[in-house]
Each structure stands twice: as structure tokens, then as C-alpha cells.
Amino acid sequence: MPEDGAARRFGFVAGHDEKPRRRLHELLVNPGIAMNQEVTFMSDGACNLRDLQYYMRPNAEHVLDYFHIAMRITVLQQMARGLPPPLTAAAPAAVATLESVKHHLWHGNVGRALILVEDFTDGFDLIADPPPEVRKLRRYPSDSAATSTTTPI
Length: 153
Description:
mainly alpha; 2 domains; three-stranded parallel β-sheet; 6 helices; 52% helix; 7% strand; elongated; ISKra4 family transposase
């Protein structure tokens, strides 16, 4: 919250706003917020919202809340638990690694969490002719996770 004035907040619901770009533009420009003024966006990491934020203010700070990151990691853990044989033996280690990622994020150690995620996905590159479950598990972080420039809270 700025020291010299009130913070501005708004909600965005995908599919509800017919012209979300116009609405965000009006919220940013009408109160007199300059293009070079610092703006912080906090979101759940939805791609449509993140793309809109980057379009409107590419130099803004983009904050992704921990709850939504943790939900995505939980999905990855469930996918890891469902690995088919002969990869079943790797499931406990994969689940533990993902739990460690959540732990590091919760404690603000984003760098270590990103390294663990990279190591996690690199491990699947070693599997020759991976089954569909492994291909989906390997793709999930890059398909749905926030970019590394996003700050989780």
C-alpha cells in the first residue's frame, strides 16, 4: 500500500468481463496513474489474467499468491502418485521433492524452489519413450506455472 495515498484494487473474473482490457485500462489511467508509475498486480496465476497484466504494464511487479501455487503442486503430487509401472518406485521421491518445493516457497526461498522444479522435470527427460502420464507430468510445470519473474507470496 502506498504511503502517500490509497491503494487501488479490483477483481477480475474470466468470462464475466466482456472487455477486460478496457476495464483494466480505465482503472489504471482514469485515476491518473502514469505509464511509468509502479504498479503491483497480485493474481492466481491464470494465464489469461497474467497475459493481460503483462500487456497493460510489462514492467509492473507481478505477485502470485502461495495458495494457488500450492494447489498446482498438489496436482503434480497426485500425478506423481499415479505413475504407471515400472515408474511406481519413483513416486515417493517425486512426491517428496514436490513437498520440498512447497516448503521452500512458503519460506520465501524461491530460487531453491525453482532449482528443485527444474531438477524434477529434468529427471523425466531420462526416460526413453515415456508413457502418457509421464509426458503430462513433465509438461505440467511449464504449461501452468507462473513465469520465473513472478514473485510468489
